[in-house]
Amino acid sequence: MKNIKRKILTAISAVAWVVSSQVSVADNSVVRYGIEKVGDLEVFYREAGDPSKPAIVLLHGFPSSSHMYREVLRGLADEYYLIAPDYPGFGDSSYPAIKDFKYSFDNIAAVMNRFLEQRDLKRYSLMIQDYGAPIGYRIAVAHPDRVQSIITQNGNAYEEGISPAGWGPVLEYWKNKTPELEKTIIENVFSLQAMKWQYTHGTRQPETILPDNWNLDYAKISRPGQHRVQLDLFYDYQNNLKLYPEWQKYLRKHQPPVLVVWGKNDAFFPESGAQGYKKGVKDLDYNILDTGHFALEEVNAIIIKKIRNFLRKRNIK
Length: 317
Description:
The chain is an alpha/beta fold. The chain has a domain at 25-163 and 240-313: Rossmann fold. It contains 12 helices and 8 strands. It has an 8-stranded mixed β-sheet with strand order 1-2-4-3-5-6-7-8, sandwiched between helices. Helix 2 (70-76) packs parallel to helix 12 (296-313) and helix 4 (132-142) packs across helix 10 (238-254). The N and C termini lie far apart (56 Å). The model is unreliable at 5-26 (pLDDT under 50).
């Protein structure tokens, strides 16, 4: 009887050890959430993976947040350390009043750079999408030694990558900053239907796109004062175009390996923006995907696989 009990206890211990080991291994693949205090601001972030492994910084677009990278975080955490912050005024980061914080790409990039420094990230790849491009390129130009590679998912750095049709009202806004035009932008860009359109336009299977995306974005953009914040950023976006030559010079001079994973049906940043990278980048992995602006929503598995292969081939450490 004692031998039977001993065998049972031994078996239970063995099972417990296996389960414990599996949980321990799985921990690094679990997405974790945190807040980093940057000056007077609280920067919300998602992270996954072992911080001792090669780092990938994920910079989101408009009108989204780090939520857009949820599948990338889970999909690459076994091999990389990934961190995705929300910008001030976006997602779950601090939302300071415009009297306390000037919403410009210069200021947001400065906050993100300080965030990365406080997180002790000295070397990393940058994944950029939409607004993530002007923020990421400001960081890259200031600290080229820190950027190991660039992954651009419709992250534009070329004038030909700005669609006049998609940017129409904003291009006009740069010339005529009037209350009437602001009203037009608010009605046509900040509505729930417009949020949904940004996610579903150009996709092959719009019924597969998660509605949480536009519902979350609409809830955030409907907060008091948010329309003013976003209009200020729209107006400031013209300054990004003025910096395109500087960003292109950075690419030519420092030659970071670049992975292009571009949704070709993007109404705002068409394929011509992706083609711009062919001008000055020598180590270019170029991929055009049959989907829309938020390509990760429809083809995240393809993009995750391409990121893994891209970084492995270049022995990013």
